Amino acid sequence: NPPYISEEEMADLSEIVRFHEPLHALTDGGDGLKFYKRFMEDIPLVMKDKVFVVFEIGWKQGAAVKDLILKAFKGAEVEV
Fold first, then answer.
1. Taking CA 41 as the corner, what is the angle to CA 18 and CA 39, rounded to the nearest 5 degrees?
2. pLDDT tens-digit profile of 43-61?
3. 8 in helix, strand or coil?
4. Alpha helices, DSSP H, located in the chain
5. What one GO molecular function would you report for this record (predicted)?
6. What is the largest CA-CA distance in the chain?
7. Angle at which helices 62-72 and 34-46 pack, to 10 degrees?
8. Chain centroid to CA 68
9. What is the reported pTM?
10. Rounded to an integer, what distance in angstroms lies between the CA atom of residue 45 and that of residue 31?
């Protein structure tokens, strides 16, 4: 899974997670959407036709990730 925890949410993580996982594995240092934004830019360069993609996302990110997908792929079917 990508580093999807926002900087804002980092303070709310349990100490077990915060202090025993590498920081770069948890957060991108911003809104937690950096990976998804980059993915939506790059995937059209390598996909041939239809693709099936599954992401792990933060519990508050469903609408934002869905919006990124729909902007990149008009008419895509997206379930959150």
1. 35
2. 888 887 788 889 999 999 9
3. helix
4. 7-10, 15-18, 23-26, 34-46, 62-72
5. methyltransferase activity
6. 43
7. 30
8. 10
9. 0.85
10. 25
Q: Which residues of 52-69 are buried (b: 16+ CB within 10 A; e: fewer)?
A: eeeeebbeebeebbeebb
- Which amino acid, residue 12? D
Compute the distance between CA of residue 69 and CA of residue 17 in angstroms, rounded to an integer.
29
Q: Name the token pair of 4.
A: 């999807």
Confidence band for 6, pLDDT divided at 50, 70 and 90: very high
- φ, ψ for residue 73 (rounded to 5)? -130, 90
The Cβ of residue 46 has, within 10 Å, a number of other Cβ atoms equal to: 7
User: Are the C-beta atoms of 16 and 24 separated by less than 8 Å?
Assistant: no
